[in-house]
Design a protein that fits this description.
Elements lengths: L9 E3 L2 E3 L2 E3 L9 H10 L2 E5 L3 H9 L3 H8 L1 H4 L13 H17 L6 E7 L7 H14 L4 E5 L6 H4 L10 E6 L2 H11 L8 E5 L5 E2 L12 H14 L6 E4 L5 H9 L5 E3 L13 H9 L5 E4 L8 E4 L27 H12 L12 H6 L30 H10 L23
Length: 429
């Protein structure tokens, strides 16, 4: 009898889920619509709080970005080296977090869970206060769980220790090594509040990577996952460990659970679904991608390596830093490495500055020009049908879930695909 992923279940406290966790993809790629459908299927999905104010403006009629732009208008035309002035209004940030979560949770059906991915590296010129507001805002709004990502989060648990849901909400952490988890456990030991799960993100994951630029390819997800599983056992705690990065098929996922993982976190397969927030043009670019077009670079001002397609619009940019309107990457001193790179390029080429080594991540995340992807993105074309006009058919979240749960081969068979309306690709897309 063939072993399938559907033979397993993930247990977090009193809740039981299908062993599929959809990773958080920002800005608004892992939409509420995607998360709601994944929860309806019985799995767990993340919404993302990346550029949360912009997401609120897009979906809920707020004007947070416009207000920021008007407030800081006098600074916009100046090539300032420091943008500490571009502080976020904490009340507005709290409102944006609540709006996203409350609207999503209100529409939730099914037995699955809706979690939110909260990145420590979104420092917003005021790291501690903005992180605390985002964490407490989503907890107040009723989110099922929070996954702490993009950073070690050594102080994040303490920020919410006084919250009434601190011991009820599901709390998890993304790590790329056993060492990162050891540091977190040591730092938070006094709170006597263990994690509910750990996501181990390997070297083939999409977006930011927790490895050095010159050695990410030396690591193996299965090996790191086993090290983390063994470490959790030494703690005497039954903490579910969930590997992520490069898990492209049901067979890949099943092998991870056979090894001792509790579930898998996946994302690449969901970037090109009907429910994804990626514009159709980007989805079709993902379908057409080739392995040699997938690169890992250091253009992110966060300092982390980042995986993306090599023709992402964010690579080689001449746009002015957009900190007054966005500013999500500004550190606690009001600095960002893109500001420095841009100003240096203006001095060299004032009429045509073009920055190759860094990018204005906030602007390009908002415009869907940062084509971050998992290494396996080039295999997406093998999961679907090519249509008569040369484009590729989008699948639904339900179809991708079905293939992970029941598939043990390397691609979706067209017989598994139910026909649905394929939106026409237009110039607006």
């Amino acid at each position: 009898m063939t072993d399938h992923l559907d033979n397993y279940r993930l247990t977090l406290g009193e809740n039981t889920y299908l062993p599929i966790m959809v990773g958080g993809m920002g800005m608004d790629i892992s939409t509420s619509k995607l998360a709601l459908e994944a929860a309806r299927q019985g799995g767990i999905a993340h919404i993302s709080d990346a550029l949360i104010s912009a997401v609120s403006d897009k979906h809920y009629g707020t004007n947070f970005l416009k207000t920021r732009q008007q407030k800081y208008q006098p600074y916009i035309s100046q090539n300032l080296a420091n943008r500490f002035h571009a502080q976020f209004d904490l009340d507005e940030l709290y409102q944006a977090s609540r709006l996203l979560v409350e609207n999503t949770m209100h529409a939730k059906t099914g037995t699955g869970g809706i979690f939110i991915n909260i990145m420590e590296k979104l420092t917003m010129a005021n790291p501690r206060a903005t992180l605390e507001v985002r964490l407490k805002g989503v907890m107040d709004a009723g989110i099922d769980g929070i996954t702490l990502s993009a950073g070690l989060h050594l102080g994040s648990m303490a920020l919410i220790a006084d919250h009434p849901r601190f011991r009820q909400i599901k709390l998890g952490l993304i790590v790329s090594s056993k060492r990162a988890l050891e540091l977190f456990v040591k730092k938070t030991a006094r709170l006597n509040r263990p994690l509910d799960y750990v996501v181990v993100e390997g070297p083939l994951a999409g977006g930011h990577l927790g490895f050095k630029i010159d050695d990410w390819f030396k690591f193996d997800l299965a090996e790191i996952t086993k090290e983390v599983i063994d470490y959790t056992k030494t703690l005497g705690l039954n903490i579910p460990v969930i590997p992520a990065g490069g898990i492209f098929t049901g067979g890949d996922a099943t092998r991870m659970l056979q090894m001792g993982a509790a579930a898998v976190q996946v994302a690449t397969r969901f970037t090109t679904t009907l429910e994804s927030g990626f514009p159709m043009k980007v989805q079709q670019r993902f379908f057409r991608s080739k392995e040699e077009e997938v690169v890992v670079n250091l253009v992110s001002p966060t300092g982390y390596p980042m995986r993306m397609l090599n023709d992402s619009p964010c690579i080689g940019t001449s746009i002015r830093p957009n900190c007054e309107t966005l500013g999500f990457i500004l550190d606690g001193n009001g600095d960002c490495s893109y500001i420095d790179a841009y100003n240096q390029e203006v001095l060299r080429h004032p009429d045509n500055p073009k920055v190759m080594d860094k990018t204005c991540l906030c602007t390009y995340m908002k415009s869907y020009g940062t084509w971050t992807c998992g290494h396996m993105v080039y295999r997406l074309k093998d999961t679907t049908n090519q249509l008569p006009d040369g484009s590729f058919q989008q699948l639904t979240v339900a179809q991708v879930f079905h293939d992970y749960l029941h598939g043990d081969d390397q691609h979706i068979k067209p017989a598994l695909m139910e026909p649905h309306h394929q939106p026409a690709l237009t110039t607006e897309d």
